[in-house]
Amino acid sequence: MSNSLALFAKATRCGRFAMLAGSIAWASTACQMPRADTPARATPVEGLHLDRTASGQAGVTRVRAVAKAGPAFDLYFDAASERHALTSAPRLASMYADIAVAAAAPVANIRWHPVLFARDPEGRLAAALGSKEIVWTVPMQADGRPATSPIGPLDGHFALDVLIPHEQVHALQHSMYGSHRELPRWFVEGQAEWLGMRISERYAPAAARRARANRADNLAQADGSIDLRRWRMRADPAANVGRGTQAPILSVSESEQEAEAQGLAEAASYAAADALFQRVSREAGDDAMRRWFAAVAATRGDLDSAAMAALVKRETGVDIDADLANRSKTRL
Ligand SMILES: [Zn+2]
After folding, report:
1. Looking at the chain, which terminus has fewer C-beta neighbours within 10 angstroms, N or C?
2. Rounded to the nearest whole angstrom, what is the distance from the C-alpha of residue 177 to the centroid of ligand 1?
């Protein structure tokens, strides 16, 4: 198995984590009203220009999409998937612009992960295209329609509307926070979960509801307390902000079952991290979240959990120490 193929397999699992992890935290703080905020939504992306080139892979076309004063990103597609890929380009451009606004990031400074629209069940195309960078796949059928699957990254709609927003938050993290800094995993995954799901809820409410319901189911199976300060990087290559642009590779001897068990065990940590972000957002508002994220971008060097908590307190006024230290199932 090549490194790229391993990345693809893990990426699929990461999508599963994104699907499984989650939060039912609003019950405990429902009495707290959010502050009035400027809307997080960006203006619709205009002037999207598509520039077609050869991809270097047989049967695959590459399109560079550049929006005027907006995001620039690459799409790949096989012949059958061309129409869906091209009609999805404005949707992706708007999603990316919204992610950037919500994270207080200049949209033009972000290097988004390329997206492949293709029938590629073995991940060979994604692996070949992604030898130098991570490529996310929207699974397609031979008839040019998105692939269908009960739920998860093998479903074309889920991949586009739930997986990709989460993963593109990781792309933003690489671009804005640096690739050689160590940030707490609860921040990296919590921001991707919280921000990605906000985008999913905006563009595909039904898919977002299903994803959150699945994550709630999984959370119900978790027991014991979760110490987010001890949560270390494991299986999400795109999230690896702290260790350079080349993600570490899990041992290929790790079986799918082991990986799945690992994923289920980790799901509660994703849920707790998401819950932390939801609570800060609810109590401090979207503008405060943007101040927090801008402060992370402006800070140099590593940030451990204590330093990040101090930064959260300074920028949002919210104390997250209890969320980090002892996030029990009952509190979720
Ligand atoms: Zn992630």
Report:
1. N
2. 15
**Cα 59 to ligand 1 centre (Å):** 30
* CATH number of the domain where residue 182 is located: 1.10.390
Judge contact between 257 and 300, C-beta under 8 A: no
210 Cα–ligand 1 center, Å: 18
Q: Please tell me the predicted confidence (pLDDT) of residue 231.
A: 86
- Pick from 3, 2, 1, 8: which is nearest to 135 by CA? 8
Whether 331 maps to a domain, the answer reads: no
Q: How far is the CA of 236 from the centre of ligand 1 (A)?
A: 5
Nearest to 70 by CA among 34, 32, 112: 112
Which 3 state secondary structure label does DSSP give 69? coil
Predicted structure pTM score: 0.79
With respect to residue 81, please indicate whether it lies within any of the assigned structural domains.
yes
Beta-bridge mates of residue 139: 118
Mean pLDDT of 152-180: 93
Go through the chain and tell me how many residues it has.
332
Best-predicted range by mean pLDDT (4-8, 193-197, 269-273, 323-327): 193-197
Whether residue 332 is contained in a domain is answered as: no
Maximal CA-CA distance, the chain: 57
Binned at pLDDT 50, 70 and 90, residue 180 comes out as confident
Find the 235 Cα to ligand 1 centroid distance in Å.
9
Structural domain tally of the chain?
A: 1
SS (H, E, C) 38-51: CCCCCCCCCCEEEE
pLDDT of residue 224: 61
Going by pLDDT thresholds of 50, 70 and 90, the confidence category of residue 240 is very low
Q: What is the mean pLDDT of residues 23-47?
A: 40
Decide if pLDDT at 76 tops 90.
Answer: yes
Work out the mean pLDDT of the chain and round it to a whole number. 78
CA of 317 from ligand 1 middle (Å) equals 26
Residue 26 corresponds to which tokens in the numbers above? Answer: 């609003």
In this structure, is residue 330 part of a structural domain?
Answer: no
